[in-house]
Amino acid sequence: MRVAVTRWSVLLLCMLALGGCSTIKGWFEIDDDEDPRQPVELEKFEQTVKAKRLWSTGVGDGQGDGLYRIEPVIGDGRIYAASADGEVKALDVTNGKRVWDADLELPISGGVGLYENSLFLGASDGFVIRLDASNGDLVWRAAVTGEVLAPPQGNGKVVVAQTYDGKLHGLDFATGERLWTYDSNMPVLTIRGTSTPILQG
Question: Which residues form the Pyrrolo-quinoline quinone repeat domain (predicted)?
């Protein structure tokens, strides 16, 4: 008898619960007029500045198949740009005319860093390169422990480059000789990429 009462009680509770669902039915339905997946209408604005393209040019194969983030840098009225296949160009900032170009014959993965009259680039096969910014001549090429994804930075005394394996390398500005290496612990799972070093002092 007790089992039958329990069954009837459970059945009655289920019926009451299901009956109550009709009162909250509309809470979870999407109104066809207000679909949240639709984009919000853009605000209307008046264009106050008109941009005009002055010039455009390409450098080598650009970012290449490695999807490297090789960024140009501006200094002394020039734009210095590099491509993943090792081409480096100096362009006049006003008209885009070529000042010089160089073919490093190295796969570039990080750059371009600039300090005074020096350019710094990193290679995917573990090299840091310093070029003379006035003519594109190679000053030195130094081996590091891995791929360099961020632009190396210099300050006249040292050139600092971060490699994909978590190491930060300090290289002699004049010769490229390795002065020191700082090793940081890398997580087991990490996103591909490194930050650009900042030198102060």
Answer: 85-200
User: How confident is the model over 28-48, as pLDDT tens digits?
Assistant: 565 556 666 778 888 888 888
Contacts 24+ apart (CB under 8 A), 183-188: none
CATH number at residue 170: 2.40.128.630
Any domain includes 106? yes
pLDDT-derived band at 67 (thresholds 50, 70, 90) equals: confident
Query: 166 in a domain, yes or no?
Result: yes
Q: Whole-prediction pTM value?
A: 0.73
- Name the β-bridge partners of 120: 113, 130
**162, β-bridge pairs:** 168
Q: Summarize pLDDT for 112-162 with one digit per residue, the tens.
A: 999 999 999 999 999 999 999 999 999 999 999 999 999 999 999 999 999
13: in domain: no
Is 139 inside a domain boundary?
yes
Tell me how far apart the alpha carbons of residues 113 and 197 are, in angstroms, rounded to a whole number: 10
- CA–CA dist 176, 140 (Å, integer): 6
In terms of residue numbers, what domain contains 148? 73-183
